[in-house]
Amino acid sequence: MDGGPVSGDGKSASWKLRPPVDALTQALVVTGFGGLPTGRALFLELSAPGGAWLTALSTVAPITTAEPPGQPEPDRAAAIAFTWTGLKTMGLADTALASFARPFREGMMQEDRLRRLGDRRGGKWLETVIAGGPQWSGNTPVHQPTAGPATISGFDVADPGPPEEEIWTPVTVHVLLLLYASSDQVIESWRTQIEAQLTPHGVRVAHSLPLVLDPNHIGVSSEHFGFADGLSQPHPFDEGGKVTVDGRSAHPGPVHGVPLGEFLFGYRNGHREAAPGPVVADDDQRRAVVAELAPHPTAEGFFDLGLNGSYLVARQLKQDVAAFWNSMDANAAKIRAQDPHHSAHITPDWLAERVVGRSRDGHLLCAPPVNYLPAAAGGLPDSSYRFHESDAAGVGCPPGSHVRRANPRDALSPSADPGARETALAAVNNHRILRRGRKFGTKIGDERKDDKDDRGLLFMCLNTDIARQFEFVQQTWLLNSNFATLLDEVDPLVGEAGRMTIREQPLRRTLHVETFVKMAGGEYFFLPSLPALNYLALL
Predict the structure, then answer these.
(1) Counting Cβ atoms within 10 Å, is residue 536 exposed (0-12), middle (13-18) or buried (19+)?
(2) pTM: predicted TM-score of the whole model, two decimal places
(3) Which residue, 210, 438, 479, 508, is most buried by CB atoms nearer than 10 A?
């Protein structure tokens, strides 16, 4: 799948932050810790207000900043993020809670958001969710007036409609603590120390996932279906180069260059405005000053709680590896039976590549006779391509493939005119996300045999506008049944069961795909800066 933890080399970040911003920002923003192959996602539940537990946590697990590490490289790193209910439980003021964006306040399990994400419709969980519904979320409460006319300040307002459906999960998550280490031994010992510090403060681990990173022969991690993951990451830049430094070149270029404000609050985003983040009132000025929060540049009387922070989207996605490969087997056999004289090249691997849009090593599919986009330096997949240049008709990489849906680049241009293609590419880049996911569970022994083990991807991404970035990609590209001239087809990898069209010359192939990926839990989190984290510790 097109979502993973590394930047392409499996070891380092593709960009850096300049001082002093690097010391104020969590390292997860610039890196997926590719040099630390073992991880743990600890989902914490709080039982009492206050932030003293954060101070206790910092004694054994200080949050890693984006400052360049010294030599030798550290053998562990940590990141932390909070749900809206977690911040409310800690005692963050109502004015501050109200200043967060609506998707974060409502949470991922809100009725309309679940519909957009393809998880629930008509009061029922869809087949893209595990049986019985998700197991964890922030359990954000719904506050909506009952049906009937309402009045605000003496004015009648439209009927708000029926009350929203209240959706709860068995496990409540207030905080996501991400741990990365050089080995299982290191991380298990570390986890024991952390729990010993948290327990006296009434903080417990409500859910946990072991995270795995195992780079292939070219240093790129693969997900459980066997395909290279974490490719084609955006390269954030700040106008004037005052904040960011691209680790690969001085100019990110139009394909991957995305304004920093798409991923960090307080900086100019794709709409050429400062990405808005949460604020706190100066009625508790002492706490804000001690935490070194900056005064908000435009909201007089408020401190900037969001500056150098972001929203973290997390979704636990269970992968059915055996179902995926058995489906590819069945489809290949059916096609060869229907067209025995022209289908000798159609194998399960050939079909799987077209579902994903890449080879197993991550190289983009192209129209014959090229077949695969040539590798970049060092044998790594080349991610600088444009679809109009490499495969405009989608004969090599199908228009409905996962890769092409997740990042259409210039493929949505209404014409081949260079100006229209540049406009389409710029529009697509206004919906980019920084992916930081890792797979969980053991590697399957036999890809065709279900061993009943839990395995999948903890999808994680960073963005400053959840609706315009993550939710847009999910709803408008991945799950759009009329995407890019297609009809009644959704993403063949993460969508519901259905058909997928593969274009060939002069024929086209149609295969039936099942539901291979199911959501087991998810939520929207706030990833604070170090000053914001200090402020929360003082609650």
Answers:
(1) buried
(2) 0.94
(3) 438
